[in-house]
Each structure stands twice: as structure tokens, then as C-alpha cells.
Write a structure and sequence with these properties.
The protein is α/β, with parallel strands linked by helices. It folds into 3 domains: 7-222, Rossmann fold; 248-325, Orthogonal Bundle (Tyrosyl-Transfer RNA Synthetase); 335-406, Structural Genomics Hypothetical 15.5 Kd Protein In mrcA-pckA Intergenic Region, Chain A, CATH 3.10.290.10. Helix content is 46%, strand content 14%.
Length: 407
Amino acid sequence: MANQLSAQDQLKEIKRGTQEILPEKDLLQKLEKSVRTKKPLTVKAGFDPTAPDIHLGHTVLMQKMAQFQQLGHTVVFLIGDFTGLVGDPSGKSKTRPQLTRDEVLKNTETYKKQVYKILDPEKTVIKFNSEWLEKFSSYDFVRLASHANVARMLEREDFNRRYREGQSISLHEFMYPLLQAYDSVALKADVELGGTDQKFNLLMGRELMQDYQLEPQVCITMPLLEGLDGVQKMSKSLNNYVGVNESPNEIFGKLLSLPDSMMRKYYDLLSSLGTQEIDTLFKELQAGKHHPKTVKVSFAKEIVTRFHNSKAAEEAEHHFEKVFAKKEVPDDLPEFLFTATEGKVWVPKLLVDIKFVGSTSEGKRMVAQGAVRINETVIKDETVQVDPKSILILQCGKRKFAKITLS
């Protein structure tokens, strides 16, 4: 192992931002053995490719995986291409729709591209759980099912709630925790990471490993990250997310809008700074040695650098200052051609065509909310009268600008 930190020092770093370590004494023992034998731990985290895009909420686990890499351990990024066909019921109030294999494989490819923005590709082992689960015979599935009972499954909060409320629970959903647990058996995992909503599944893996006469894994749960509103869990559907694949200006601007109260949590869960550095930074912030905006800017630049590069981070800071602090239109506007019909432009379609929104219904909402400006004037109607062959400066929301040449 390249890292020379003691087991106690490693444990201190690992504990930062975690919700629970179950049990902590076992993790310390594993770390002590790792230091003594110079053999890295196998750290597993599973991701079902149920959607193609990753946001900062998803990267909380990946950042903890990167920390384990920096400490010299082996990280297994497990893609649940088999379990993704089943659908994780964790935290769901009803049965999740099952994906097709084509959907899972397509999402898997985008996952692989995005994960290396956080993890070291040379130190990351990517595995697919179809490698062992597709080899299961019907007998193997029955045998695996014998390791749990219905009463145990109904201890899960989400299953218990659905059972009490008379909501459907499909039998294949009962199999999901066991399949995830078997992944730990197949990988002989020392540690498994997951969100707080994964606690039941992670502990099931610990128990199943003991049934298979393996040293049980330690379970580490990570808190769910609140979104930009500082209240609800980060989610694309709530529009409070920061996407890994978003532009540098979008990432930077969104992070500058974070409530001051959320900054410590974002640093703890997502920054690559050490625990001591973060403690020092926030002690100095409380002492008035830093302005909250300075701390946000440093964090935003770190995240933009991670997903893009340092030059993009510097340019995003400049763009933010120009557009928001000085209230100026940016210099480097993307340019688009758009055909006006009889001197009129239907704004929702224009927003879709230049990819500022995903649908005309979303475009309508933006207009209704007063979030669209043309030549610095708020647009109140979906259809606007324009001069033929004129040039418009369009603004959508706080961060999206474009130059529109009409034809």
C-alpha cells in the first residue's frame, strides 16, 4: 500500500461526513490488519444504472470511494446491470417500473464516462453483477431466498409501510436485498458503501457473508445530500440539482446560490480537502477571517475543476462576476438561427430548439414564471412579435444566455 497513514488516522478521515459505520470497531480492526499486512481493503459500492445522468447527490458515495483510493485501498465500482433489471425498492412507495436490458446497457455506458471524473481510472475496478448473477440456476435463486424470511423483509421501513397501507409488494422486490447482498459474497467485500436508505440492504450483505463463512463486511452509510434549496433531497425532478455533465458556468452559478448553512455539509461530503483543512477553514470563517462568498467560490471552483478543468473554473468565476455581480451580458454568447413565422416567435419552441429546456411545457412554465427575457425585457406572453432578420439577446433563468439571429 502506498499510503502510510496509521489505522487510527485513516479511520478519522473515513468518518468525515458518514452517517453510520456498522460496526466501527470492525473497521478499525480491518484497517489495522491492512496496515500490518500491507494488503488493501476491498471497498464496494453498487450503482444500478436506472437513469443516464449523475448529479452531485450521487457523487457523495463516489467521493468517499475516492477517499478510500487516496488511502491506498481497492475500490470496486459495481454496476448493477442485473439488479437494475429488478429495480431497487429502497425508499419507494410503490413498485419501481422494471427497465429493459437495452435501457440498462445504455445508461451503463454514460455511467462509466461520468464516474472517472471523480475516481482514479487506474485504481478503480469496474465490475458488473451479471457476471455472477446471470449464472444462477433456478435452484441457486431458491437457495439464496432461503437465507431470509418474510418477517425479516417486512422489518424494512418502506416494505412495512406499504404492507400496512395495503400497497402492492412484488415478490421480485423481496429478492433485491438478497441479490445485492450476494454481490458482497462474490466480491468478498471488506467494506460496502451506501446511502442511508440502503442500510437494510448493506446489513443483509453482512449477514449473508457470515452464512457463507466469510468475514463480514463493514457497512458505511452516507447521508442523502440536500439540493440547492437546502431542504429537500437533491433531485432532477425537484430542479434543485447540480449535474456532473452540466457546463462550468451552470455548476459554478448553481453552487454560488447555495444557502450559507449548507456549505459545511457540502465540504464534508464532496470536497477533496482533508478533515483538518476543512475544520480550519470553517473556524476561520466563524472568526470572520473569510467571507461566506469566498468559501463558496473556492468550493465551486474545486467542483468545476473536478468535472472540467482549472481553466474552466477560472472562466466560470469571471463569467459569474460579469453577469451577476456587475449585471452585464456575457461576451461569449452561443449563437443560433431561428425562423420567425409571420414576424412572430413562439418562445417555448425557441427554448426547446436551442436546448435551454427539455420540452415546450417546461418552456411555458419558464415564461409564466417571468424567467425569460428578450433584449433585457421580461417576456409575459408565449408568442412575441419580432422584426424580421433582427438579432435578439435571450436570457432564460439566471444563467442561460444566447444570441438569436432571426430569418
